[in-house]
Amino acid sequence: MKFAPAGADHVRNSRLRSVRQRRNRRTTSTIGENERGPDVACKAFGYCERGVTMSAIAKGAAVPCRSITTEEVDHFHEFGWAKLQRFVDWAYVGILLQIARERMGDDADSNEGKSSGTGTSYFNALFTGGLAHPELRRLIEQVGKNAKVLMRRRSGIGVRYYNDLFVPKLPSSKTSKHGGNGPTAFHQDFMNFGVDRTGGMTWWLPLEAYGPDAGTMCFVSKSHRMGVLGDFRTYGAGDVFDVYPELRDLEVTAPMTYELGDVSVHSHLTIHGAGANITDKPRWAYMLLTQPADACWNGAPSPNFDSSDMKPWQLLDGERFPMIG
Ligand SMILES: O=C(O)CCC(=O)C(=O)O
Prior knowledge:
Structural class: alpha+beta
Strand content: 5-15%
Radius of gyration: 19 Å
Oligomer: single chain
Bound molecules: 2-oxoglutaric acid
């Protein structure tokens, strides 16, 4: 699927330049934490300024993604992860890729900032602010409904938005401004998120078809049953297998092959990793993270949200963490 007509690179580049210039003119306070809400975020992320994105959206499909099946739910609970084939509509995948390129450049390395708190060699992470984008929000809410089904809480507890990010992995053969051009060491996400309970999950959407050469996800099946295994920053030069060799008794999947629209979803307790991207192009991906609706802040600072006005054990709620399922 093509979203930029042939020969339109200069148009895209000049658009990227003008978005950058506009962003440079803003002071930090104009997009600061005091100003919240979709309109402010929409301005901050520049979505309202991008007519081309909106016209691509207008051509998009009515339903961003399909519903998860019972077999997929069972697989997720058994193994801690599931691959959902043809889950997202191709038009939406294209929209995401276009937005990602506009924000990060065609090389996925031309963004001005890097979202903190992410492994520097893993990917060049940039928070997307998707709640502020009407069409992305539709995808987020549709995924949220599926996340509730997938979480399968007997009390019927729903799901909240936690974060969404672009996570391109840059080619390992090239130098990069933002890092993000190495392998993703095997790790568990849970300790990174400042929450008091499990049920969180990451929906990982590749924005093109990719195989192992691009550095795709691998999962340690059933590792979600092994409890909390520490934060990856404490492993030094090694990974979670060095600290918990018993994980070697479990099956590690081969790196996934994703066709366009395929997605994987993993529990925040599931150990996962990815190889380096040995192709000469960025491996574009988008991640949406969800949490159970009753998740509370555990009091530990998290690089994923601003807790300066929060009290330990308060519910993660409000506009920052809206219900999506
Ligand atoms: O994109 C990757 O390589 C890894 C993603 C990841 O580590 C995560 O979903 O927590």
